[in-house]
Amino acid sequence: MWNRKSTLEALGVEVSLGIQKIQCKVHLVLSSIGVTAFLLVAIGVGVAAPARAQSPLPTLGDASDLTTSAERRLGDRIIRELYRDPDYVDDPVLVDYVQGIWQPLLSAAKSRGELSAELDERFAWEILLGRDRTVNAFALPGGYLGVHLGLIGVVATRDELASVLAHELSHVTQRHISRLITQQSKQTPLLLGAMVLGALAASKNPGATQALVVGGHALAIQNQLNFSRDMEREADRIGYGLMAPAGFAPQGFVSMFEKLQQANRLNDNGSWPYLRSHPLTTERMADMQSRIPPGAASAPGGPTQTSSEHAMVAARARVLSNPGVDTLRQWIAEPKGSGFQSQPLPRRAAALYAAALASSQLRDAANARLVARQLDDLVRQDPAAHRLSRLLAAEIELAAGDASAALASMPEGNNARRPELVLQTQALLRANRPADATQALQTWVATHPKDATVWQLLASTWQAQGQALRAIRAEAEAQAARYDYAAAVDRFKAGQEMARRGGPAVDHIEASIIDTRLRAMESLLREQAAER
Question: What global pTM score does this model have?
Answer without folding.
Answer: 0.79
